[in-house]
Design brief:
Blueprint lengths: L1 H9 L4 H4 L4 E3 L6 E3 L8 H18 L6 H4 L9 H11 L5 E6 L2 E6 L4 H6 L14 H13 L2 E2 H8 L5 H9 L3 E6 L7 E5 L1 H6 L11 H6 L20 H13 L1
Antiparallel strand pairs: 1-2, 3-4, 5-7, 6-7
Protein name: SMC-Scp complex subunit ScpB
Organism: Methylocystis hirsuta
Pfam families: SMC_ScpB
């Protein structure tokens, strides 16, 4: 790891230097100026301090933190990708990990500890997706691939009615939201997935959605009586989907 190499190069730092605060007062108003560069620290200590800052901010945030926000915490000569890699190495033996989801970085518990978190039923939540019925899972998956999609379109895909309760349950969980009204009689709402959907399913963006065949192999999609072909069906062509996905990713 880079910080270990830097530590050997720097040798032992003095106690006086180790006690140096990362923020210092400036001006008559007493406002604090954040020192991102830490240029007067030895390289190894500077690297460790940057790692601590980034990890602390991600830990304290209720939502994924973007790269653009995090780079403000470190110096201009910091290789941010190497810093993230070192934090991940540090956490390798811990029950949680640093992941890139929903366009930002987040600390989340590892999947193998989900049962331990749930058994106490004390309000703590594991990082995985909520428990969904097969119909809810099919519905949210179809919306992810076809969005924006109306309830009638989803019912056609599923081969049975997707009722309002299913849509309401997914909205209550924050996984989908009402998108634009569809240009068809009655102008029904079309539904889209949310950043919360990306977060709980561990996706950095919708571009990371797995192939349909992989979902079927995993048993996450059940084909209706009629053969399901998601690509290009229900009047949603590929260009429309790509354009809409880009809009959500940029939001």
């Amino acid at each position: 790891m880079r910080w270990m190499k830097a530590a050997r190069a720097d040798g032992a730092a003095s106690d006086e230097t180790r006690a140096r605060p990362s923020r210092r007062p400036t001006g008559q108003s007493g406002n604090l100026l954040f020192d991102a560069d830490l240029s007067d620290l030895p390289q190894a200590m500077r690297w460790r301090e940057w790692m601590g800052r980034v990890e602390a901010v991600i830990f304290a945030s209720p939502a994924p933190v973007t790269r653009d926000a995090l780079v403000k915490l470190v110096g201009r000569d910091c290789n941010f990708d190497e810093l993230i890699s070192d934090i991940r190495d540090d956490l390798r033996a811990r029950p949680y990990e640093l992941v890139h989801v929903a366009g930002g970085y987040q600390l989340r518990t590892k999947a193998r500890y989900a049962d331990a978190i749930r058994v106490l039923n004390n309000g703590a939540h594991d990082a995985g997706p909520p428990a969904l019925t097969p119909t809810e899972l099919l519905t949210v998956t179809a919306i992810a691939y076809l969005q924006p999609a109306t309830r009638a379109e989803l019912s056609q895909l599923a081969g049975r009615e997707i009722n309002r309760d299913v849509i309401g349950s997914l909205k209550a969980l924050g996984l989908i939201a009402a998108g634009p009204r569809a240009p068809m009689p009655g102008a029904p709402y079309a539904y889209v997935t949310t950043k919360r959907f990306l977060e709980v399913f561990g996706l950095a963006s919708l571009r990371e959605l797995p192939d349909i065949e992989m979902l079927e192999d995993a048993g996450l999609l059940q084909r209706a009586a009629n053969e399901i072909e998601l690509d290009g069906m229900l009047g949603v062509d590929d260009e429309d989907v790509i354009e809409h996905v880009e809009d959500i990713d940029d939001a």
